Hints:
globular; binds s-citryldethia Coenzyme A; 432 residues
Amino acid sequence: MAKTASLKIDDKEYPLPVMEGTEGEKAIDTRTLRASSGYIAYDQGYGNTGSCESKITYLDGDNGVLCHRGYPIDQLAQQSDFVETAYLVIYGELPNATQRKEFGLLLRKNAAVETQMQKILEGFPTSASPMAMLSALVSALPAYHAELATNNFEKDLQSFDLAAAIAMSKIRTFVAMIYRYQKGLPFMFPKQELPFCDNFLHMMFSEPYKDYLAMPEVAKALNLVLLLHADHEQNCSTSTVRMVGSSAANLFTSISAGICALSGPLHGGANVAVMQMLQSIHDEGDDGSRFIAAAKSGSKSNRLMGFGHAVYRNFDPRARIIGDACDSVLNKLGVDDPLLAIAKHLEQAALKDDYFVSRKLYPNVDFYSGIIMRAIGIPMNMFTTMFAIGRAPGYIANWREVAMNPKGRIYRPRQIYVGPTKRDYIPMGKRG
Ligand code: SDX
């Protein structure tokens, strides 16, 4: 027997169905609320509102649990790699050997970018935001793959596998192109024989006269960073992909919008802000206490970057994994980064400070990710584009859920209007 909740307004009761997810999450289904009571629910920032039912990722913010299609993130981090986890996130099951081979081949075959797309980059100053350039390149994909981006769900789903591979593979190539463009270096074409991460590192760091061959430790570290970013439930940018996709916009256009949302410093831009914070502490010879004091002021512009989370009220499991990996990766690479020691000191100091403890503010995935990316040789201004490469599978999987939902509706939240009430037009001559 389905449970119901009852909302009492004045002396009238409104029954509302209760929903329960496979992990026991409960929700009150308010879809009939406005029609039955004339009231809407109000939840600024949607922190208490479910926008969809999804089978992709489960998050338990109170207990620091993260699972993709039921598989815990620590098991995937230890036993899987980015491409396999991407397949899992997108298609719902771990691939068998044939599926894994075919998926990898599709990614390799679609790694190259039309030469004409380079002109899009040339329209930007080299100082432009890498995320702005990435979003522009992705939003141009429908022009080059019109047959995959018809803005008709039924047609676009028929060619989904190819569109998904193009999105995931070319976002990776675009990031390397942006890096080379900013450096004034020639673009390096992908090599079909290289695995996903090795190919990215080749396109980033090879020279026409000398190939960059990634050390296994470097490719492994990059795999881990990307895998840990693969998907994260209804975060700001993924919800943006769903919002735009709900209008029947194609996969590429929807992802481009998600990349714009990801660029914000409170979201994907935090990994850059963390490194800037750590570098400032290092340059000032501070022990971090100045930053902690400023962060406790409560102003959004002084927040301890890489700390806190909209959902986690416990450790972000990804932060633990990437924090533990930092030591081993830097040791293997022979990198001694003073920022790692500062990050650890800052974490310990914050975790003992009641301001953070009382607000359940713990390190999130961005707190350590920049240290590994810097050790690999990726410049700080490219960190958020790396987040976009990692999150591409999540964007793709969520767009597919929207497109495949037979009962799907365009996302159109309501509001509470608090502006001026009705008033008559005032001719210019009578205005103050
Ligand atoms: C990502 O949603 C996702 O899943 C995102 C992500 C993903 O994988 O997609 O996990 C990736 O975006 C991680 C978060 C990266 N951002 C940062 O590290 C920026 C710093 N953190 C924050 O600004 C903040 O914690 C947010 C934006 C992440 C969450 O903001 P909320 O949910 O609006 O937090 P809140 O305002 O409810 O915080 C509650 C209290 C407030 O203080 P009081 O009003 O109670 O006095 O905690 C304070 C906040 O001022 N607070 C912080 C803080 N984060 C929250 N104070 C100091 N430093 C911080 N970092």
